[in-house]
Amino acid sequence: MGSRASTLLRDEELEEIKKETGFSHSQITRLYSRFTSLDKGENGTLSREDFQRIPELAINPLGDRIINAFFPEGEDQVNFRGFMRTLAHFRPIEDNEKSKDVNGPEPLNSRSNKLHCKEHDGSCL
Question: What predicted TM-score, i.e. pTM, was given to this entire model?
């Protein structure tokens, strides 16, 4: 399954996601494989129902809130890029990342981006 994921995910797209989210190449490839296994309609997107089929989310009292974090207001599908952007909010910041380019964009998982997300649409936990 890992080879399928790496062939369907273009190298340039993988690099863009890596830069945008901070996930490693292997993490992105593994998450892409998981994303495609959840995509029962094989259309490159996930629906709320796809997430609800995950047993751990189905029994989690916060499952609906976690699922809602993946869907901006009025959206009912999420593509892989959106999936990764949402997961990046939950990725911890490593010490070596804190000293990165101060002129570059702030990481998706920064404290201010997490607060910004909460204040504007409430879609993130």
Answer: 0.71
